[in-house]
Amino acid sequence: MTPARMLKPIMAVIVTTLVSLPPVLHADDVLRPSQVSPIPDDLWKSMQGVSWHADLPGCRRGRCKCPARSELVLLTIPYIGFDAKEKSGRMVVHRDVANEVVAIFEDLHRQKYPINSIRLIEDFGGDDDASMAANNTSAFNCRVVPESSAFSMHSRGLAVDVNPILNPFIWRGTVRPPAGTRFDGESERSNRMPGLIVADDGVTRAFAKRGWKWGGDWSSMKDYQHFYKDVR
User: Fold this and answer.
1) Bridge partners, residue 213, by sequence
2) pLDDT tens for each residue of 73-109
3) Which of 95, 134, 98 is nearest to 118 (CA)?
4) Edge-to-edge strands of the sheet including 169-171?
5) Angstrom distance (rounded) from CA 214 to CA 20
6) pLDDT, tens only, 171-215
7) Peptide bond into 23 cis (omega under 30)
8) How many Å apart are CA 157 and CA 107, to the nearest integer?
9) Of 56, 164, 197, 201, which sits most exposed with the smallest number of CB within 10 A?
C-alpha cells in the first residue's frame, strides 16, 4: 500500500474524532461545582470568640445562643469577579439553607452578576463594619444588631449580605458602610450599575424564588445588601 493510501484511513479517524469532540468552553462559561462541607477543625477554632461565642457580647444572657457547630456548614462558592474572571469564595451558613444558598449563587454566576469578594468574617476579625468597608459578601456572624441587643439573622446563619458598598444599609441619615453614600439615593440606584441590587432584578428574583426576603423592601429603613430566610 502506498503512503498516500495509508494516510486516508488515518485522516478519516482524525476527522471523525474532531467532529465528535464537545465544543471548547471559555473559562467564564464553566461553572465549577459548589461544595458543602462540615465546619473543619481549623475553621471552628478560628471562629471561637470571633464569629461564634459561648456568651454573646451585648446580648442579654441566655437570650442569644449561637448555633451549634453541627448546625453550620462551610460553602465553597464559585463567582464572577468585577474583573470578569472566575473566582471562588467561602461562607458559613445554617445547614438548613445550604442548598438554597448554593442554588442562589449558581443563578448569580449564570447571570454573570459581579461580586467583589466572598470571604469569611474571620478574615476581618469578626468585624462586620470592616467586612462591609471591603465590599465583601458574607453570611454567618453570631452578633447583635448594631446599637441594640437584638439577635441578628446573621447569628443564625440565615442571612447573606451582598456587595455592601454598592448596596448599603440606610437608616435615619446613617449609611453603612460610609462609602455606600455614593449609592444611597434613588437616582443613583436606578442606573443599573453592575453590582447594584434593585427591585425585581436577577439578584432579588434568585433569592425570592427560594423564599428569601430582601432588606431593600423595608419601609422604615433600607438594607439593600441584606437577604434573609425568615424561619420561625
Assistant:
1) 228
2) 999 999 999 999 999 999 999 999 999 999 999 999 9
3) 134
4) 174-176, 169-171, 222-223
5) 46
6) 988 999 999 999 998 888 887 789 999 999 999 999 999 999 999
7) no
8) 20
9) 201
Phi and psi (nearest 5°) for 161? -105, 130
d(CA 92, CA 158): 10
| φ and ψ at residue 49, rounded to 5 degrees | 75, 5
The set of cell numbers assigned to 119 is 470571604
Q: 89 is written with which cell numbers?
A: 469564595
Q: List the grid coordinates of 118.
A: 466572598
| Amino acid (1-letter code) at residue 122 | E
DSSP state of 186: H
As given in the structure block, the three cell numbers for residue 79 are 463567582
- Residue 177: asked if its preceding bond is cis (omega within 30°), the reply is yes
Grid cell listed for 117: 469578594
Q: What is the DSSP letter of 82?
A: T
CA distances from 38 to 71, 126, 128, 209 (A): 9, 20, 23, 26
- DSSP letter assigned to residue 169: E
Q: Which of 92, 90, 102, 98 is nearest to 52 (CA)?
A: 92
Pairwise CA distance, residues 85 & 74, whole Å: 23
Query: Residues 34, 75: contact at Cβ < 8 Å?
Result: yes
Confidence label for 165 from pLDDT (cuts 50, 70 and 90): very high
Residue 135 contacts residue 161 (beta carbons within 8 Å): no
pLDDT of residue 187: 85
